[in-house]
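Limitations
The structure tokens in this dataset are predictions for the assembled complex, not deposited experimental models. Users should treat interface geometry with appropriate caution, especially where small molecules or nucleic acid strands are included. An illustrative entry is reproduced here so readers can see what is and is not provided.
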Amino acid sequence: MTTANPITKVLVANRGEIASRVIRALREMGLTSVAVHHSVETNARHVREADEAVELTGETPVAAHLDIEQIIAAARKSGAEAIHPGYGFVSENADFARAVEKAGLFFIGPAADTIALMGDKISSRNFARDHGVPVAPSVMPTDDLDSFAAEAAAIGFPLLIKASAGGGGKGMSIVRGPDELHEAARRASSEAQRYFGDGRVYAELYIERPRHIEVQVLGDGTGEVIHLFERECSIQRRFQKIIEEAPSSSLPKALAAEICDSAVQLAKAANYRNAGTVEFILAQDGRYFFLEMNTRLQVEHPVTEYITGIDLVRAQIDVAAGRGLPCTQDQITQSGHSIECRICAENADEDFRPETGRIAFLSVPDAPWIRFEHALDQGQKVTADFDPMLAKLVVHGDDREQAINRALAALSELAVLGVTTNIDYLSRVIATPEFRVGDLHTAFVNEHAEALKPDKLDPADMDRVLIAAALSFHEFRHLIFDVPELQATIGHWRN
Amino acid sequence: MAFRIVLDGIEREIDIIRRRPHLVLSINGREHVVQNPGDGKTGLGTLTIADQSLKFAQVETPEGVVLRLGGRTYSAELLAEGEASDNMASSNLHAPMPGAVVAIDVAIGDTVATGDAILTIESMKLQMVLSAPRAGIVENILVAEGESFGKDQLLANLADETEGDANA
Amino acid sequence: MRKIQSKLNTNSPDFMSNAAHNRRLVAEFREKQEAARHTRPQRDFDRLEKQGKMPPRKRVEMLLDPGTPFLELSSLAANRAYNGDSPSASSIVGIGTVSGREVLIRADDPTVKGGAWFPLTAKKIVRALDIALENHLPVIHLCDSAGGFLQLQSEVFPDKFAAGRIFRNQSILSKKGIKQLSIVFGHCTAGGAYIPGLSDYSVIVRGTGAVFLGGPPLVKAATGEEVSVEELGGAEMHTSVSGTCDYPARDEADAIRIGREIVSQWDRPKKWDFQQEAPEAPAYDSEELYGIIPNDIKKSFDVREIIARLVDGSRFHEYQPNYGQTLVCGFANIWGMKVGILGNNGVLFNESSLKGAHFIELCNQNNTPLLFLQNITGYMIGREYERRGITKDGAKMIMAQSCSRVPKFTVMCNGSFGAGNYGMCGRAFDGRFLFTWPNHQIGVMGGDQAANTLAEVKANQMRRNGETVDDTVIQSLWEDTRKAYEDQLSAYYSTSQLWDDGIIDPVDTRNALAIAMSAAMNAPLGDDGYGVFRF
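Predicted assembly:
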């Protein structure tokens, strides 16, 4: 691409590791970056790393990051021509995209209408079905719970009931028989009403032990769409991914190609612009169904970058600037295997309860095949203000086995001390024989809950740990070393 | 003075048996030779216990030590015999200056932690909160709302949580 | 320094018979010590437990740094007094390490008559505080005493070196910047109240600890006021109202933890710069000491054999090896610390006295502490020796020794008779520490000689009174006198009276001396100069 870049300065409307990631890409592209932040994160890493920073005000830090008007005003004020929304916050907000376009700025994302289309479970599902992408048999959303129950029962059981406006597992439940149906629908509806202000629910065929397969696509907005192969994100807790990999662990080539083609088909139909992810649910028998499309950069994008060698953030910016796709489908190859582990401040042994604290010590493993994506600082407070995800540890290997071994080694070396994290838990998941052979499904962590508990240390190991712990206490070291030489040498002696 | 170490909820007694020629520590009576006791500094460290080298990372936090060793994270607490640091504080809440009671924030019999508000008082047009000097049970509140008091007057006192202690 | 070549034959009948004898003596000593330390009526322990108290020795153990030595002093004080009612003189004294600081620990013993002070208790405490003063050792008092033992109050209370001296010493300690911490576990009544009162720091246990000049019964008798122990002098009152004590503690363990933390704030006294090397174990087994010490006080042995089993690497630089050979002098190290040793190898002659005096001066010049190994029957007597000035030569040795500015240590190895005791730094000569072996005897003269003299005097008296004095009478007089005298000669009598800082097992000598010497280095050297030597 040789056309002049209309984008020279980009406001990054996000924080944390993704803001850092985007800022890094901007720097590599020779573009100026503008960070935004709430007053509580004035010294945050993304703020320091950006060329410029604008403070947003808000009652809570999250509110500040969701404040469309302020963000656009910040972009204007700083002279940025474009806004990169990262993921989360305003990244999938059609109103935001529209406001950005209205302000005469480039939105590094799809058209507002695409966001709106894909942002709604029902409309996106209908769109997929209408364009030949398989969708699971389902009942149309309604808040008439009686008719809903009748139609749902007709699909057969088990059924999955979901909030039509929802996400993140809210308002979701599995119904195994007609008796439970009505109550589950009522509960889902009221929960949906409470969380999303929209009580409509819908139901679809529930697939036992499904795998979560998603396809990374990249569209230029003129109908050109390429895919960057699939990712597998079946390891989830509380319906949220914690370990992702690319390619999928055990997908037959033909099936993988079929799924990828379906994704491209959908994105093409939507004239999709930007990087996007089409998510599918894959049944054990090889049937797959459209789940949803995420119209933004995905948390787990690095695994795709690792196997394809394509910088997705850079591609997003180029596409947004009208500079076209980085390559044709034929030019994309995949090599090796990549695994991402989401490092979260949470207690995996206490139902993944979010944890807070202070990062008193951070030690990051270093190797050419490791990417540690984070915006952490030693001494930084981890509060409940933001998402508990602290960082991502991404590794690459020649094959899946090597990637697994490298992930385990890197997790073992990684130290984030001062706040409880899921690092040990992630190691335990990856170390299970089932993970190693790729026997994955989205209820993996529940099914293996017992095996994933920390195993008891044998007494000798325990003693060593206790000694290491004791010797870490200033007070105990004093007791040992603060004794005069003579008395230390004579030792315990009584006359 | 022996110490107890609490690691992820498991409590062990740890004792220093010898310091020369090598440090020997005992955990519940099992002795271990520590050839290299490390430097105790925050961060990455190395120990040698029974000729086995051990790499780990550690930090001391206000709650204790967090340790990462062999791909596992542990939190540990060190307790001296009879340790109960908040008991160094007095059980009595005396008026720091003359004033009046604005509010009573606890009831007799309430269990309070160190720093919990007991009384709000006003003195010289300034309101201030008198908080529990130590953990315990509110035994007496000797003033009423609106009541005035003089400097050093005893306003409230705490009893130990364990029964039959001090004033038995 | 060369290693001493031991000439000991460990297979000889002599060695074996000595060893058997001395092991028996040590076993006897250990038995007495064990009883003094731990044998009490069960009800006394039960009472303590009911009060939530620990036995005093457990308090001491808990206070000490784990894995460090504790040198207990005078464990058998008062063993020949009060019908044995005051084991260890109702008090524990020793030197140990607390929070990395060398300290002197002094604990009341509430398992004996409520920790009441007997006259010898006061003497032991005064001596303990003297040690603290002389060696600049901080003191930790573990207080739990009902006060003076009333039945013997006249001996406890008024004299110069009685209880009052404790408080005088406490004041002087504080003045000299030698810190004191009191941990009040039980009652500190009357004079005892001044122990925490005169301590620089004090901790008091809630519920059991109390400090007052007069307890509730006394208050009631004096003024009619009825008051509870807690109100009168409890932890809460003293730490929040009177300010007599500094820190309240939840229980005894908590008090000890707080005490240890207080000690860890103390500055460390700078030791004087003495010569030190890496320590080395003796080349010979110290257990062989049992075979060297004779089974009969009249038998002689070579003190070099003792030295070889006390000093680093058994290395000894002997001074004037060919002159005045009945006094062995030379340099050695104990646990790395340089020391000048004077050991008796027979009666002191003119030459040995002069050599001793000269060697003492060398050590003073060289800042080397002195160690006296006493096994002495005295200075040589007789016309020739008097004509050669044995008295003035002995006086030179006493003068040099008395005026020494370096610290002195004495071990009573076998016998200490007559003026030899003086020249070799007996109790009266302000040695920093003096230890006694269980076999040791001490007196103006030996048992036989004393019995002869005393029986003769007695017989003459009887004759003057017109009584018939035949051989049987003389024999029984002799035996009675000898028995009574022997009893006073024994190490147990000596240690009971606090003429020493305790009986020690010979194999413990090396460690005991090292701890004592290390403690002594905390204090600066004494004044320079001597008196007039008579030439």
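Some entries come with short summary sentences. For this one: The longest helix of chain C spans residues 13-38.
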